[in-house]
Amino acid sequence: MEQDIAAQLQELHARVCKAIADPKRLLIINELRDGELSVGDLCEALGFSQSNASQHLSVLRERGIVNARRSGNNVFYSLRSRKIVQAVDLLREFLAEDLADQAMLRRAIDSREVDLGLDL
């Protein structure tokens, strides 16, 4: 029973990660971090066509990342939980640290090449 739950959780985890793996979807999540927006507002803010934004929002909605609310002719989207913002921010911090480490390593290598008189 616990293995079933663990397997389901891993599957859900993978599905959410796949959903946020798209750069445009990350932009949408970032835009929604401050609150609900209509599709039109998202398109204007991000420079997306309505059909493109709707496709990405559909994936985010299917994965349970965003909620949709219809009001007249407009559909408004909001994040289902602030935890997705925290997760995205944590990943961004991890990647920024990794890039900084790589840059430091590159500078150390370049410095060593100069010290050794190497031209790589």
How is this structure best described in words?
There is one protein chain. The protein is mostly helical and 120 residues long. It has 2 domains: 1-81, Arc Repressor Mutant, subunit A, CATH 1.10.10; 82-120. It contains 5 helices and 3 strands; from the N terminus they run H-H-E-H-H-E-E-H. It has helices spanning 2-20, 23-32, 39-46, 50-62, 83-116; strands at 37-38, 66-71, 74-79. Strands 1-3-2 form a 3-stranded antiparallel β-sheet. A hairpin with a 2-residue loop joins strand 2 and strand 3 (74-79). The model has no long low-confidence stretch (mean pLDDT 91).
Q: What are the key terms here?
A:
2 domains; transcription; Arc Repressor Mutant, subunit A; flat; about 120 residues; three-stranded antiparallel beta sheet; DNA-binding; mainly alpha; HTH_MetalResp_TranReg
Task: Give the helix/strand layout.
Blueprint: H1 2-20, H2 23-32, E1 37-38, H3 39-46, H4 50-62, E2 66-71, E3 74-79, H5 83-116
Antiparallel strand pairs: 1-3, 2-3
Domain HTH arsR-type: 5-99
Pfam family, one: HTH_5
GO molecular function: DNA binding; DNA-binding transcription factor activity
